[in-house]
C-alpha cells in the first residue's frame, strides 16, 4: 500500500496553469482539489459512513470541512469521491462535529 504523498505540488501547479490558460474550468477545479488534499493523510472518510456511525443525517460536506478547519484541523474535499472528506482529524472528532452541525 502506498502511504506517501499522492501528488507532486510542482506538477499540479504546472497543470493548473495550463488548465486556466485553456479555460478548462472542470479540470482546474479538479486540480485545485488535488492541491488542497496533497499533504493530507492518504485515507478519506465517506460522509455516509460518518452519518451511519454518528446516527445522524450528514451535514453538507463543505460545512463539515469548514468546522474541522475552525477546530484547528486540516481538511479538504477529495478527488477520489464527491461524498467524502480528507482530514488529519481523528474519526471520533469528525463524528462529534458532524453531530453538532446536523
Task: Tell me the structural class.
Answer: alpha+beta
Number of helices: 5
Order of helices and strands: HHEHHEEH
Low-pLDDT stretches are none
| Bulk shape | elongated
Largest sheet entry: 3 strands, antiparallel
Question: How much helix is in the residues?
Answer: 40-55%
How many strand units? 3
Overall mean pLDDT score? 93
* Whole-number count of domains: 2
Radius of gyration: 15 Å
| CATH superfamily placement of the largest domain | N2,N2-dimethylguanosine tRNA methyltransferase, C-terminal domain
Q: What fold name goes in the CATH topology slot of the largest domain?
A: Phenylalanyl-tRNA Synthetase, Chain B, domain 1
Main β-sheet, spatial strand arrangement: 1-3-2
N-to-C CA distance: 34 Å
What is the CATH architecture term of the largest domain? Answer: 2-Layer Sandwich
Taken as a percent bin, the fraction of beta residues is 5-15%
Text of the CATH class of the largest domain: Alpha Beta
Describe this structure in words.
By secondary structure, this protein is an alpha+beta fold. It has two domains: about 5-40; about 40-100, N2,N2-dimethylguanosine tRNA methyltransferase, C-terminal domain (Phenylalanyl-tRNA Synthetase, Chain B, domain 1, 2-Layer Sandwich). It is about 55% helix and about 15% strand. It contains five helices and three strands. It has helices at about 10-20, 25-35, 45-55, 60-70, 90-100; strands spanning about 45, 75-80, 80-85. A three-stranded antiparallel beta sheet has the order 1-3-2. The longest helix is centred in the N-terminal third of the chain and has 13 residues, at about 10-20. The relative contact order is 0.17. The model has no long low-confidence stretch (mean pLDDT about 95).
Amino acid at each position: 500500500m502506498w502511504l506517501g504523498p499522492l501528488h507532486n505540488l510542482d506538477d499540479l501547479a504546472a497543470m493548473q496553469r495550463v488548465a486556466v490558460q485553456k479555460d478548462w474550468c472542470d479540470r482546474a477545479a479538479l486540480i485545485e482539489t488535488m492541491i488542497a488534499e496533497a499533504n493530507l493523510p492518504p485515507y478519506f472518510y465517506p460522509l455516509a459512513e460518518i452519518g451511519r456511525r454518528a446516527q445522524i443525517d450528514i451535514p453538507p460536506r463543505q460545512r463539515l470541512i469548514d468546522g474541522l478547519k475552525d477546530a484547528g484541523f486540516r481538511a479538504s474535499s477529495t478527488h477520489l469521491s464527491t461524498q467524502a472528506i480528507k482530514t488529519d482529524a481523528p474519526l471520533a472528532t469528525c463524528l462529534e462535529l458532524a453531530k453538532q452541525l446536523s
